[in-house]
Structure formats: structure tokens, C-alpha cells
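Example record for the data management plan.
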Amino acid sequence: MKRFLFCLAIIPVATALADHNALLPRPQQVQYGSGTTVLQGLSVRFTSEPSTEDLFAAEQLASRLSAIGQTKVEIAPLESIPPKVK
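Corresponding structural encoding:
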């Protein structure tokens, strides 16, 4: 009976967590403006060697932005990063 009650108690928590997109952290504040962002020609870039998790996140982000903007958002190869100015 205790397990059943525990499962009932955890359902609202699990449901609340399922609504959050794990790719991005929850913002502390959101302000919507009237401007727009052009996604055409946009690419996801890394400033250092990406890990497997970084590549996965970049692929998910590029895929979602491509779908929303109805244009291809590329993941730029690491070699395309300009050298840092010292």
C-alpha cells in the first residue's frame, strides 16, 4: 500500500518534469518583443572541441530551429572557427 501511495504522489512531479524541454534550462524571466530573427544562414558553432553530448545537443538544436524557421540550420565544422585575437 505504501508503494502505491508513493507512486500516486510522484505522478504530479513526473508530469511536471516531462513538460520541460531538457535541451535548454528553464529561463528565470522571459520578455517577448515584436522583433524577429532571421534563421536563414544561421549555423551552430563550437569554440572548442565538442563532446559527444555537445554534438547531440547541437544536432537537436539545429533540427528544431530548422523545423521552426523552415530553413536549414547547419552545424559548422570546428575548422571554420576563426582564430582568437590576442
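Summary line stored alongside the record: The helical segments are 2-18, 52-69.
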